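REQUEST
  id: r-88c1
  op: predict_structure
  target: Serine acetyltransferase
  payload:
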Amino acid sequence: MSDSPARAFLRLLREDAEVARAQDPAADSLVSVMLTYPGVHAVWHYRIAHVMWQSPGLRMPARLLSLASRLFTGVEIHPAARIGRRLFIDHGMGVVIGSTAEVGDDCLLFHGVTLGGRTMNPGKRHPTLGDRVMVGSGAKVLGPLWIGDDAKIGANAVVTKDVPRGAVAVGVPARNKVPAPPVPDTSSNGESRSVPRVIEDPSQLIEYVI
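RESPONSE
  id: r-88c1
  status: 200
  body:
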């Protein structure tokens, strides 16, 4: 028998907390995450406000909830934005997600990130992030752009053009860089194997500009 909508929604909220615990080495416990992580609280508030936004009569309360969340968490997410599962906003302070922004599953945003627009015209004005996108601290992604699956945005980058799948965007304005191929390695038994080049923290990607 399938879960009720309320039970499925509560499971979604728990999933948001579980992904924060899994990704943050500083997380002590699931209870600690649920009680003290403003990024998780902001996503929870958004999910409730987004459900309310679907009913025209509840749009003002939805906006008031998003305002209260901004005051409480430092994160501003418009209730009309579309956000997938398991979004983790690390630290959270200063994150802004606009009304026509779309965020895929398993994305990671650091503090100071803006998913904003470049015009006040109606219609699609904000970026679309694919799945597993990482956006470094202070990065600005502006306009109706497409950020491909598994892409990474460097710290303080200003992105005004599409970023292909798996690419790394760094600089002001941001330039797309294709990750280096796997580095050959030789194991102890003399056999050659490939070791992928891993960028562990997108907040450190600013070094690639220099």
